[in-house]
């Protein structure tokens, strides 16, 4: 079994889409093995987005991700679960995301694109450690 990490970002929580997003993953056969609704702080976001610290968009990213609670979860499934999740999410820009993907069906703007998913097995392990210890 393989595990990956997701965040239903503040816009997903604010719009009441967490159940829909999680339901899609569960209907695909992925299992939620850890979950928590949490207000994210600057320190945690700094560790999560360490490759973006100092970039021009970073302050806005932190402001968005900390403006209201986010829903964090660890999903378990077959090998390369992270790739399944990322396919289901769709491209970062909702305008380019096909119908049937989370961002294609519900996304409106690139800066608030509803969901984060780890981009590799290594990233999943690092991100799970940051958010779930």
Number of strands: 4
The name of the CATH superfamily reads Nucleoside diphosphate kinase-like domain
Major sheet characteristics = 4 strands, antiparallel
Average pLDDT number: 97
Gyration radius (Cα, Å) is 14 Å
- Largest sheet strand order: 2-3-1-4
CATH class: Alpha Beta
Shape by Cα distribution: globular
What CATH calls the topology is Alpha-Beta Plaits
Helix-strand pattern, N to C? EHHEHHEHHEH
What is the CATH architecture descriptor? 2-Layer Sandwich
Count the DSSP helices.
Answer: 7
In terms of quaternary structure, the protein is single chain
- The number of distinct structural domains comes to 1
Helix percentage range: 40-55%
Provide the structure class.
Answer: alpha+beta
SS strand fraction: 15-25%
Give start-end ranges of low-pLDDT stretches: none
End-to-end Cα distance: 20 Å
What descriptors fit this protein?
133 residues; Alpha-Beta Plaits; 4 strands
Structure description:
The chain has 133 residues and is an alpha+beta fold. The chain has one domain (2-132): 2-Layer Sandwich (Alpha-Beta Plaits). 43% of the residues lie in helices and 20% in strands. It has seven helices and four strands; from the N terminus they run βααβααβααβα. The protein has a four-stranded antiparallel beta sheet with strand order 2-3-1-4, sandwiched between helices. It starts with a strand and ends with a helix. The model has no long low-confidence stretch (mean pLDDT 97).
């Amino acid at each position: 079994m393989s595990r990956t990490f997701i965040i239903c970002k503040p816009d997903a929580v604010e719009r009441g889409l967490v159940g829909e997003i999680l339901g899609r993953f569960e209907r695909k056969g992925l299992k939620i093995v850890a979950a928590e609704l949490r207000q994210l702080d600057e320190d945690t976001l700094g560790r999560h987005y360490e490759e973006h610290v100092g970039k021009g968009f970073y302050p806005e990213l932190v402001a968005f991700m900390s403006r209201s609670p986010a829903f964090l979860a660890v999903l378990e499934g077959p090998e390369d679960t992270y790739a399944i999740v990322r396919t289901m999410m769709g491209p970062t820009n909702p305008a380019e995301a096909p119908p049937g993907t989370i961002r294609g069906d519900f996304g409106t703007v690139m800066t608030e694109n509803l969901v984060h998913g780890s981009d590799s097995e290594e990233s999943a392990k690092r991100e799970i450690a940051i958010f779930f210890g």
